[in-house]
Specification:
With about 290 residues, this protein is α+β, with helices and mostly antiparallel strands. The protein has helices spanning about 1-20, 45-50, 235-245, 265-280, and strands at about 25-30, 35, 40-45, 55-60, 65, 70-75, 80-85, 95-100, 105-110, 115, 125, 130-140, 145-150, 155, 160-170, 175-180, 185-190, 195, 205-215, 220-225, 230, 285. The strands form five sheets. Strands 2, 4, 5, 8, 9 and 10 form a six-stranded mixed sheet that branches.
């Protein structure tokens, strides 16, 4: 009887842990403290999605606001803003970006970035064509996880992101967003707490991939030559084999000092789960502040 109760208690705790996810927050990239003169910045998360077009961003040094161009990417319950300065940043100066809502209230701001005397104009190179590895479907208490796993090795000295365009071939709709790579591999779609795109096993998708370095230089765009059906439950075992190999010998959790200490315990746990898919030490995360 005690054994049965123990097993049931464990199951209940696990289910509660799965469902205890907070679909809010802001992540930003890069997390480096020293950046290039032609640096670009990316911020994203559910709070960006929630603000929609009301979100405004300022890049400043002291009291001076740098002219910037904003490119917005909208997903199902996630959104990203790419910040591109219209002029070179000044070496030796300190800059930070500030996110505001429709009322001008500061929602979040970055740590200071110090500008080096370098200017990166070299585009990332793709070491080999992207290769589809596996897909995953898992049903949780608070949502489903549907994702694709690709191998995409890139030659680039500085941190970089993968720009992904997903086209649903039935209605021809297209969604574009950025993801973090890990050891030449990328995972994208939706995790249990949300994400940019939920794949459907009844639909077929076309995938385009490119790499962007932290100065906004792009590799050539590659169209994966085969359309891919959305994941279903039977795909998960294959995915898990790849995922175990992917994680062996690597720490995919962002160090705890990148997560604010005042964050509630349940939210820190959620961040860690989400950062398993999003993160590397090159990705920083801000807690919700609006």
């Amino acid at each position: 009887m005690k054994t049965t109760l123990l097993i049931l208690s464990t199951i209940v705790i696990c289910l509660q842990t799965r469902a205890d996810c907070n679909n809010h927050g802001i992540y930003y990239w890069p997390s480096l403290s020293i950046v290039e003169k032609n640096q670009v910045f990316l911020i994203g998360g559910y709070d960006i999605y929630r603000l929609q077009d009301a979100a405004s961003v300022v890049l400043r040094t002291g009291n001076y606001e740098v002219p910037i161009q904003l490119e917005k990417f909208q997903g199902e319950n996630d959104a990203q803003i790419l910040i591109q300065p219209k002029q070179s940043l000044i070496p030796g100066k300190r800059y930070n970006w500030v996110l505001k809502d429709a009322n001008g209230k500061v929602c979040a701001e970055s740590k200071p970035y110090f500008v080096s005397n370098t200017n990166d104009t070299i585009s990332p190179l793709l070491a080999s064509p992207p290769q589809f590895l596996a897909k995953r479907f898992v049903s949780y208490g608070c949502g489903i996880e549907t994702s694709f796993l690709f191998d995409m090795p890139v030659v680039e000295a500085n941190p970089y992101l993968i720009k992904i365009s997903v086209k649903e071939m039935n209605n021809r709709s297209e969604t574009t967003f950025f993801e973090m790579p890990y050891c030449g591999k990328i995972i994208f779609g939706r995790d249990m707490c949300g994400g940019f795109y939920t794949f459907d096993d009844k639909c077929v998708y076309q995938i385009k991939l490119s790499a962007m370095d932290m100065c906004g230089n792009y590799s050539k765009v590659l169209l994966y030559p085969k359309d891919i059906n959305g994941p279903c439950a039977s795909d998960t075992a294959s995915y898990n084999r790849f995922f175990v190999n992917l994680c062996e010998g690597n720490d995919y959790f962002v160090q705890t000092d990148l997560i604010k200490s005042e964050t509630p315990k349940s939210e820190r746990m959620t961040m860690s789960i989400r950062l398993l898919l999003w993160g590397s030490p090159d990705l920083s995360l801000l807690v919700r502040c609006v």
